[in-house]
Design a protein that fits this description.
- InterPro entries: MFS (IPR011701), MFS_dom (IPR020846), MFS_trans_sf (IPR036259), Proton-linked_MCT (IPR050327).
- This is MOT14 protein.
- Its main location: membrane.
- The chain is mostly helical.
- The protein has one domain: MFS general substrate transporter like domains (Growth Hormone, Chain: A, Up-down Bundle).
- The N terminus and C terminus are likely disordered.
């Protein structure tokens, strides 16, 4: 029922047995059930991220239904997107106690409940609570386990596996846009949300597929990763010093805590053995006591791991490149979300609805986004290519497209820019890989939780800000310009920190030479 460290991407650091016996490669690492994990994650991205990318359809329905400003109405979509990602660090705590599978199943139920309750909305503020908060938290509880499980099951093909699984966002955006548009026309937006809620119950099936690796499997993966570490050093060479100094938490307190926990359980077990001659009622009471003790220990251990990763002496926040990565994430995601929410309105303003109905611009982004994720994942897995450099080039392309989009007022021009936005935003498939290279597999769950939390903050304020700017200027141009400039600030932070990291060892060696 509860999860040990293997459930959330923590590796075991006991090297005492390495070399004593040849380690046989586990068939489930980079193969076997690993591909079922990819399928599960792919479906999660379709049902969660894909439907969120299609919320522009519902946003127009809500504007007509409730007659509220664009800024206020956009909060419904942004709350759902933002909370899905913001709850990442807290879902990391939940995963450490319950495991990825249980967390995802509970999240699937919550997400479906949010969609169904939203069908009975009487005003926008009701949607804030049902769709924004309830469905958003449920989505977050499924999304993070789906990403983390792929990282656990793959070693050699991580970028490709993450790329294939996250293409579900593109497929989902294309399919859900068409589905929601059809359902709204045929049955109205309320019944459309009710039907979508029923479809979202399939997230529980996806969660059931997330079978956790055994400690032995994770240990073998750790050994394989240690052997191939030199070949992967090119991926993020500027962050090697940081990973070595900050990537591993001290395990001595954990060992002491485990010893104390075993002592408590041992005493309960001793009492249970000694009381076998007693009544059945007392035996039942001892079993309850033992269960409560195990649950308490599990909660304490999960909280200790979660707390030490965020706030301990070897906290993730002492990694400067990782902190720069967080700052980038605070500005980046809104630039991708704003077009999905507001493009239907922009098309209507430019009188391009006829062409857009034939082939929606958001569908162009979604389709090309699929190819972008797969192609960028394949390129990043090449031994001569740095994942970090591919990630940066894709970011530069995307920010250029965001700044260019307001200049295009024809359907062809907008379609070309949207295609480039879709392809360059394929760098999302590289984010788990870059994060893992920065902090190590051991801290992937918590670190990626922080990154998607920062993305969630970006998604939370981006669309309402764009709507607010439109309410003032009656144009979306300044929304894209400001979002693009903030995005550029985040990219600059990514470029500055590696330079600082490279200079520090040189300065230190100079001081030692002088001494």
């Amino acid at each position: 029922m509860y999860a040990s460290r293997e459930d959330i991407g923590y590796d075991f650091g006991d090297d005492s047995k390495v070399g004593s016996k040849p380690i046989k490669p586990n068939p489930n690492i980079d193969g076997g059930w690993a591909w079922m994990i990819v399928l599960s994650s792919f479906l999660v991205h379709i049902l969660i991220m894909g439907s969120q990318m299609a919320l522009g359809i519902l946003n127009m329905e809500w504007l007509e239904e409730f007659n509220q400003s664009r800024g206020l109405t956009a909060w419904v979509s942004s709350l759902s997107m933002g909370i899905t990602l913001i709850v990442g660090p807290f879902i990391g705590l939940f995963i450490s106690m319950c495991g990825c599978r249980t967390t995802a199943i509970i999240g699937g139920i919550l997400n479906a409940l949010g969609w169904i309750l939203s069908a009975y909305a009487s005003n926008v503020h009701y949607l804030f609570l049902t769709f924004g908060v309830t469905a958003g938290i449920g989505s977050g509880m499924v999304y993070l386990p789906a990403v983390v499980m792929v990282g656990q099951y793959f070693q050699k093909r991580r970028a490709l596996a993450q790329g294939l699984s996250t293409t579900g966002t593109g497929f989902g955006a294309f399919l859900m846009t068409a589905l929601l548009k059809y359902l709204c026309i045929e049955f109205g937006w309320r019944n459309a949300m009710f039907i979508q809620g029923a479809i979202s119950l399939n997230l529980c099936v996806c969660g059931a597929l997330m079978r956790p690796l055994s400690p032995k499997d994770l240990y073998e993966k750790y050994v394989v990763r240690s052997d191939s570490e030199e070949n992967r050093a090119k991926a993020l060479s500027h962050s090697t010093e940081t990973i070595k100094s900050n990537g591993v938490l001290s395990e001595e307190p954990e060992k002491k805590e485990e010893a104390a926990n075993e002592e408590v359980l041992g005493s309960v077990q001793h009492i249970e053995i000694g009381g076998k001659s007693g009544s059945g009622r007392s035996m039942y009471g001892l079993r309850i006591l033992k269960t409560v003790s195990q649950l308490t220990i599990t909660v304490r251990k999960g909280f200790a791991l979660w707390y030490s990763s965020y706030f301990g002496a070897a906290s993730l926040f002492t990694n400067r490149v990782f902190v720069a990565f967080i700052i980038w994430a605070l500005f980046a995601y809104s630039s991708f979300v704003i077009p999905f929410i507001h493009l239907p309105e922009i098309v209507k303003q430019y009188n391009l609805s006829r062409q857009d109905n034939v082939f929606p611009l958001t569908s162009i982004i979604a389709i090309v986004h699929i190819f972008g994720k797969v192609i960028l994942g394949i390129i990043s897995d090449l031994p001569c290519i740095s994942t970090w450099n591919v990630f940066l080039m894709a970011n530069f392309t995307l920010v250029t497209c965001i700044l260019t989009l307001p200049l295009m007022q024809t359907y062809i021009g907008l379609a070309v820019v949207c295609a480039l936005i879709g392809f360059s935003s394929g760098y999302f498939s590289l984010m788990p890989v870059v994060t893992e290279d920065l902090v190590g597999t051991k801290h992937l769950a918590n670190a990626y939780g922080i990154i998607i939390c920062a993305n969630g903050i970006s998604a939370l304020f981006g669309p309402p800000f764009a709507g607010w700017i439109y309410d003032i200027t009656q144009k979306y141009d300044f929304s894209f310009y400001i979002a693009g400039l903030l995005y550029m600030v985040g990219i600059i932070f990514l470029l500055i920190q590696p330079c600082i990291q490279k200079k520090q060892p040189r300065e230190k060696s100079t001081e030692e030479a002088q001494v």
